[in-house]
Structure prediction request, 550 residues.
Amino acid sequence: MSSLSASEAFLGVPPVEIPAPLSVRVEDLHVTYRASLERRPTVARRLRRLGRGERVVREVHALRGVSFDVLQGQVVGVVGANGAGKSTLMRALAGILPPTQGRIEVHGRVSTLLALGVGFNAKLTGRQNVTLGGLAAGLDREEIARRYAEIADFAELGEDFMDMPMLTYSSGMYARLAFSVAVHMEPDILIVDEALSTGDARFKEKSFARMQELCAQARTIFLVSHGLSTITQLCTEAMWIDKGALVERGDPAKVVSAYRRFLKVGATAVTQEDV
Amino acid sequence: MSDVQVYTPFRGGLPRLGPYARELWARRQFALELARTEIRTENTGTGLGQLWLVLNPLLLAFVYYVLTSILSGKPGGGARLAHIMAGLFVFYFFSSAVVGGAMSILSSSRLILNTAFPKMLLPISVVLVSFMRFLPSLGIYAVVHVVTGQPVRWQMLWGIVPLVLVLVFATGLAMLLATVNLYFRDTKSFLPYTMRVWLYLSPVLWLPEQVRGSLAFLRWANPLFPLLGSWSEAVVEGRAPQAWMLGAGAAWAVVALLVGAWALLSREREFAVRL
Ligand SMILES: Nc1ncnc2c1ncn2[C@@H]1O[C@H](COP(=O)(O)OP(=O)(O)OP(=O)(O)O)[C@@H](O)[C@H]1O
Ligand SMILES: [Mg+2]
Prediction:
């Protein structure tokens, strides 16, 4: 890359910045949930409804035509009201929800922190859960053993707690360990969905530093947060999603202020903090 | 970047089997760890702990021994006890694998909504749990076998064949029912009764030779007839099982596995939006 721009400079052409390689491309993405109206969809009720000609499945059109490209090394903040479709978009990027229409192209391995401690079992000790969480994320045993010390150090729970069942953890401790496992998976793309909010100020700072570190290694990060200051501090770009559509995308400060105007709230302490 | 993944709309049909099998193999340790976790945590609260793994089937075998003795009007003797135990232990394994497997997808909704992995791991892991629970009961059977004076011959090793076939048959059925249960949620409510009747229709409380007349159809209509029949012939009587039983058992097992895997694979991408 550098030799190319050097030769161009030599030829008297102004050096062009060559864009980083593509990380994620989303084209006209639609996702529809098929929520069952019945709490318990049973054959009998289905037959009864069929007789009356009612629809049993209610379709929730959660994403309606979202398109964007993200380059490697970006930290993308995602904001939007409750139910806007942020988590749905993240699940689609992680390959969990299939598109109903459209196309997603992902370059690299995705590690998700969609909900805290997925795959964890509270009856197991922290140490056992690191193994279980790592295996759930697709690592093998040797890799996890190699990273174990680093993960435990980062979570800073103390050796005693690593060998206690996670039932005995506070929710912040639980979140710390879960976060620590996710960021040590060496993903190419990290997706964080409102996971930073339970850590204390010190741990939050540490997570910021770790995320910046990951970006420096040309990893791509998606960060969903209602803490608007987190978005402006940490992200290189932001997108605002409303009712399943991409409303605005670009500089985090601009997107966040547009979103704030939409919500008709000022930059008060409430919107700044992760509550 | 090494690997590119493209997600496009779900159109039904099978995924590409090669990559799927590779992914499944890569996650085998996760399935094992899930199974181990289940075993490790289930009896932690009870006084006798893991001892229940062998006590449960043992007590159940005695209950049925008493029942059959009363029904036939005379105490059954050692051979009958050994036959009931051998059959019941395997049936117990089969039934818990199938009933647990049927719930495996629905009960892991959190895992499915937040991690991308081959869903086939879930029923497989449940079958593994049941199998691990079953293994210690073989030790009990060995003691009963010797104490009641049944023959110890090398032909008993034939028992491995029907045992593996039951494992395959149960895996196929677990996959099928796990998928069906997502669309018709009554499935799980019917299962306990189905299993109870299935036990009575299988050569566990009676000997394979005892079916005559109008009940002879069981020999070909009940998959567990050849499977448990050949198991008992090998393990209890210490002789090579009849060839037709092994053949029929193998056919049932392969058909169940193919149908179950096809049902699960062709629907699995849709699971996340249907939970
Ligand atoms: N499992 C599901 N089944 C059916 N509908 C769902 C499911 N999950 C989400 N939805 C619907 O999809 C829409 C988008 O939900 P989503 O979880 O993506 O919102 P969000 O932007 O993450 O909101 P929040 O800020 O509250 O986390 C909502 O209307 C919601 O009702
Ligand atoms: Mg959300």
Q: What stands out?
A: The mean pLDDT of chain B is 87. Residues A 33, 35, 60, 62, 80, 82-88 surround adenosine-5'-triphosphate (ligand 1) (CB under 6 Å). Residues 176 and 263 of chain B are 6 Å apart (CA to CA).
